[in-house]
Design goal:
- The complex is a heterodimer.
- Chain A is of the alpha/beta class.
- In chain A, 41% of the residues lie in helices and 21% in strands.
- Chain A has a five-stranded parallel β-sheet with strand order 2-1-3-4-5, sandwiched between helices.
- In chain A, strand 3, helix 3 and strand 4 form a beta-alpha-beta unit.
- Chain B starts with a helix and ends in a 9-residue tail after the last helix.
- Chain B has twelve helices and ten strands.
- The chains are: A alpha/beta, B alpha/beta.
- Chains A and B meet through helix 1, strand 2 and helix 2 of A and helix 1, strand 3, helix 4 and strand 4 of B.
- Bound molecules: guanosine-5'-triphosphate (GTP) and magnesium ion.
- Guanosine-5'-triphosphate binds next to helix 3 and strand 3 of chain B.
Chain lengths: 135, 315
């Protein structure tokens, strides 16, 4: 599905100091024609609140220092509780591959390995935005 | 229930951004609930600390028990049409979980005049949501500043020390649009000198509706350290009250509604015109599009004048 203006919320944990990855991705998504809001979150409700108010199509969470499972477990219901049933939720950063399947079961649509070119993320978003559901 | 209305408001704002005609009807329904929000414009050069200052303003206003709506506008890339809608760290931190705060980022999308129109409508949405104060943040580079000036009751120009040439350019801006000047990064050594220099200029704004002037105050702040913020809010409120002591306030609101009227008419007519099939145009008209356009517009204006409609007389 294509959409004229795709809006993305990129969030990374406040305690993760490696900010470059998220900012770089933000720039790459902008260059791919998307509108990107990025910020650092303390608790997942902050992501969900921002996602509603900004009315984003995509939520991307970067995790560098573990905690991905808890984040997903909190985030998906928080998004659903706010009526965001069609938002595409992706994760990136340092996530061990063994966690991908459990994360998908929790409702995350896709995990990206670090160092992946931003083009791949943009392409995935473009192809899947608007078709995703949070079951 | 509350989150439901937030979701509705957020989606309505998206429709406004996308120019979806259905938004218009909803906006018309909201109008009776509008008119109580205090509108504050925050503008200034790139990197002056507008977003950081907005975050401190949110905190200060919330501590006073006032609810806040924020519309933060950032430029779209002219190449990709994508946009980096700023680093919302501090703003979202100030808002964290607080239902009294609603923050929305907008990309300018490069539509001339379209941005101001959309922002005007988004202001109405936040006003109707019952926000006591609505802050509009835009980068001041040329036309944007003037457009925002028409929207806000009070325009705060954020200025930073050590800008050199930019200072001169900003000075021109001050006389045209600023109701309050905030010299940010007051924690830096050069700030005091900039404050002195700007205060020495004795900037004033003339009340367009009465024979009185508003002396533009210059306030040193540090958005980063939350210094001078309560004072800044005090000055913004002073100006807001000052405009109510004459017809100035209603003049500002009239200007805003006029800008909305212009935008609505322009957009509606453009859509109407675009829907006319090329075959419907007279061959003569297409040979001389200038005369045709003149005739077309005159016809509309004359029809209104003939039935005695006020406000748009035929030339
Ligand atoms: N020293 C100091 N730095 C500040 C202060 N306020 C903001 N900054 C810094 O200035 C930089 C820009 O701040 P922003 O708030 O993003 O500025 P902005 O005007 O919104 O920027 P644009 O929206 O990109 O035009 C950041 O690195 C801030 O940390 C302040 O009071 N003191
Ligand atoms: Mg900013």
């Amino acid at each position: 599905m294509s959409k004229e203006h795709i809006k993305v919320l990129l969030a990374k944990k406040k305690i993760d100091v490696h900010g470059r990855g998220t900012k770089l991705l933000a720039r790459e998504l902008r260059d791919a024609g998307m509108e990107v809001v990025y910020f650092r979150f303390g608790v997942v409700d902050e992501i969900a609140d921002a996602a509603v108010q900004e009315d984003v199509d995509v939520v991307g969470v970067s995790v560098m220092t573990s905690g991905q499972i808890q984040i997903a477990r909190g985030l998906i219901p928080a998004l659903k509780a706010r009526g965001l049933d069609n938002v595409l939720v992706i994760m990136g950063g340092i996530i061990p591959e063994v966690d991908y399947e459990p994360l998908y079961e929790l409702g995350i649509h896709r995990c990206f390995a670090p160092g992946l070119p931003g083009g791949a993320v943009a392409e995935y978003i473009r192809e899947n935005v608007g078709t995703a559901t949070l079951g | 229930m509350v989150s439901d209305s937030v979701r509705h408001a957020a989606r309505l704002i998206t429709q406004i951004e996308n120019g979806v005609p259905a938004a218009r009807a909803v906006l018309a329904e909201l109008l009776p609930h509008c008119g109580s929000a205090q509108l504050v414009g925050i503008t200034g050069p790139p990197g002056a600390g507008k977003s950081t200052l907005t975050a401190s303003l949110i905190k200060e206003l919330r501590s006073q028990g006032r609810s806040v709506g924020v519309i933060a506008v950032d430029p779209s890339s002219p190449f990709s049409m994508g946009a980096l809608l700023g680093d919302r760290d501090r703003m979202l931190e100030a808002a964290s979980g607080d239902p009294g705060v609603f923050i929305r980022s907008l990309a300018s999308r490069g539509v001339p005049g379209g941005l101001a129109a959309a922002v005007n409508d988004v202001v109405d949405v936040m006003d109707a949501m019952g926000k006591d104060v609505v802050i509009v943040e835009t980068v001041g580079v040329g036309q944007g500043e003037l457009e925002i000036a028409k929207i806000a009751h009070t325009v705060v120009l954020v200025f930073v020390p050590g800008y050199g040439d930019a200072l001169q350019a900003m000075k021109a801006g001050i006389t045209e649009i600023a109701d309050v000047v905030a010299v940010n990064k007051g924690d830096l050594a050069e700030a005091s000198r900039a404050v002195q220099e700007l205060r020495g200029q004795d900037y004033v704004r003339h009340d367009p509706t009465a024979d009185r002037t508003w002396v533009v105050p210059v306030q040193k702040v540090s958005a980063l350290r939350n210094e001078g913020i309560a004072e800044l809010v005090g000055l913004i409120d002073d100006h807001y009250r000052f405009t109510a002591q004459s017809a100035w306030r209603s003049e500002i609101e009239r200007n805003r509604r006029h800008a909305q009227f212009m935008a609505f008419v322009t957009e509606r007519l453009r859509a109407e015109l675009a829907s006319i099939d090329l075959d419907a145009f007279d061959a003569g008209w297409l040979r001389d599009p200038y005369a045709a356009a003149e005739e077309f517009v005159t016809e509309i204006v004359k029809a209104r004048a003939d039935r005695g409609a006020v406000g748009l007389a035929a030339k």
